[in-house]
Amino acid sequence: MTLLVENITKAYGGQVVVDHASLRVDTGGMVGLIGPNGAGKSTFFSLVTGFIEGEGGAMTLDDRAIGSLSPQARAQAGMVRTFQVPREYTHLTVRENLMAAAPGQAGDSLLNVFFRPGRVAEEEKALAIRVEEAIAFLRLGAVADTPAGMLSGGQKKLVELGRALMTGAKLILLDEPFAGVNPVLIEELSERIRELNARGIAFLIIEHDLGALSRLVPMLYVMDRGRIIASGAPADVLADPLVREAYLGGTT
Amino acid sequence: MIPFIELALNGIVSGLVIGLAALSITLVFGVARFPNAATGDVMSLGAFAALAGASASGTLLIGGVFGIAVAAFVSLACYFLVFQKLSSRPPVASLLASIGVAFVIRAVMGVVFGHQQKVFDLPLARPWRVLDIRFHPTDLKISLAALATLVAVFLILHATPIGRRMRAVADDPSLARVSGISPRRIMVALWLLSGAVAGIAGILVGIKTVVTPEMGWDLLLPAFAAAIFGGIGHPVGAVVAGVILGIVQEVATPFVGFTYKIALSFAVLLAVLLIRPKGLFGTVAGAR
Fold first, then answer.
1. Which of A138, B252, B267, B283 has the maximum number of C-beta atoms within 10 A of its C-beta?
2. A240 to chain B, closest Cα gap in Å
């Protein structure tokens, strides 16, 4: 699944937050998006996932224009995001969180529940197997029946990843997956992301931990004050004087 | 002592029915996020439809199923005609609209069915006497029907995919959207379910007492009280609170009189709002 973003812009009351930003994630690709705090990275995610509306520019997923689709339609098209502060259905168990994310279940219709219980039960069984696999893959077995709101920050990040997985997403947008996560779990999360990428799922990752991110992605974009100011291989990008200036706050 | 036990039993029966109405309110509040004042009139409508169905078919069962179906579909129609269009506005817009919807439904019922009291044609049954305590077989059937409804709703919420998704949307609607859950299906299920539950509550009230176009509206405030008392958006709380309110109302009747027993609901409601605004079971997150 190829995501192509061209010249998208967002301003809040005259303050331009995302300024003609363009970016590309290829099928099965792994791309990082970095930049100082307040650079507009999270707003960029919200624009791409349809949570807020931008002004101008174009977005396509596999050549299909998605700029006017609702957030749920974009998710159904195969692009799902996670959040900087992890979000989960707090009262649902980890298992239920993952099960609720699976699309296209017959049991999503109340009438099917009553009039086609056999088919609903069958799909539930198949879904339960997929969810068990995801839980095992994410090493969440010990907390599978715990309400997700009670998990640690790192575990919630895993649940978010699991939820994205269960939607059948081909492109997952991770918003600071390593923030507030202990170093051991960062390695584990990175490993899971690598394995998923090897299975063909593309990632676009916002992250402040440049060390961990550079080890994970072959391609970085740098955003500063709403603009993409550099892109390329991590080593090159991080050596770019413009990028160093943006990060060290040397700009006026 | 015995009169009090009888009153308490009676309170449990009417409390279960109030609990059903509160459950309908709390379901809508949890997912669609506004207090639906049309709940009471959907109840009355269910009772009238059941009466019509029962007299046409000759059996209460078919009448009941018809009444539930009518309540469910009218509830869904209210969503498509009114509440869906207001879903992006503040909740108070939907609340005010629901009061209007309530008046419209009641007015139509008044025109179609008249304002005389109607009763379900039930065979007379002798009350049972156990240890000198009287209990009507009809009351037992009403309680069982109410309990069966509660169990069915809990099973739908907790053991089916659509129930899981309803709880997910109640928990975090915007997260549900970015995860690809489309609100439309959830809302269709919600309004069918809450309408059916209200319809059942109305039919049971009609069987226990009489059917009038105003019966549901009169029960709306006790039902609201139960929903808030139980912790708004919390289905178990709504039912438990309904039963507690029912018992309090009935047992207090000898002291405050029949006319004022309903005022007790409001006293309880006020006390809960002042002392424990999140209700019996509610959490701050649950009320979100």
1. A138
2. 35
Coil, helix or strand at residue B51: helix
Residue B38 banded pLDDT, cuts 50, 70, 90: very high
Distances (CA, A) of A234 to A12, A107, A220, B18: 31, 45, 6, 64
Q: What domains lie within chain B, and their CATH numbers?
A: 2-117+131-275 (1.10.3470)
- Within 8 A of B173 by CB-CB distance, chain A residues are none
Nearest chain A residue to B189, by CA = A110
Written as tens digits, the pLDDT of chain A (252 aa) is 889 898 888 888 888 888 888 899 998 899 999 988 888 888 999 999 988 888 888 899 898 888 888 888 898 888 998 888 888 998 899 999 999 888 877 777 888 888 888 888 888 888 999 999 999 998 899 999 999 989 888 889 899 999 999 988 999 999 998 888 888 888 888 999 999 999 999 999 999 888 889 889 999 999 988 888 888 888 888 888 888 887 766 544
A-B CB pairs within 8 A amount to 99
Predicted ipTM of the assembly = 0.80
**Confidence class for position B272, pLDDT limits 50, 70, 90:** confident
Q: Are B201 and B20 in contact, with CB atoms under 8 Å apart?
A: yes
Chain B within 8 Å of A119 (Cβ-Cβ)? no
| Residue A107 to residue B162, Cβ atoms within 8 A | yes
Q: What is the pTM of this model?
A: 0.83
> Residue A19: helix, strand or coil by DSSP?
strand
Structure tokens at A44: 């960029």
pLDDT band per the 50, 70, 90 thresholds, residue B170: confident
Beta bridge partners of A93: A147
User: Distance between terminal CA atoms of chain A?
Assistant: 39
Q: How many angstroms away from the CA of A238 is the closest CA of chain B? A: 32
C-alpha span between B5 and B247 (Å, rounded): 10
CATH class, range A3-88+153-248: alpha beta
- A84 and B CB contact within 8 Å: no
When CB atoms are compared, the residue of B171, B178, B189 closest to A89 is B171
Interface residues on B facing A, Cβ-Cβ cutoff 8 A: 156, 160-162, 164-165, 167-168, 171-172, 174-183, 185, 188-189, 192-193, 285-286
| DSSP per-residue string spanning A77-127 | TTEEE--SS----TTSBHHHHHHHH--S-GGGSHHHHHH-HHHHHHHHHHH
A122 touches chain B (CB under 8 A): no
| B175 vs A contacts (CB less than 8 Å) | 83, 87-89
- Using a CB-CB distance cutoff of 8 angstroms, which residues of chain A are in contact with residue B285? 90-91, 149
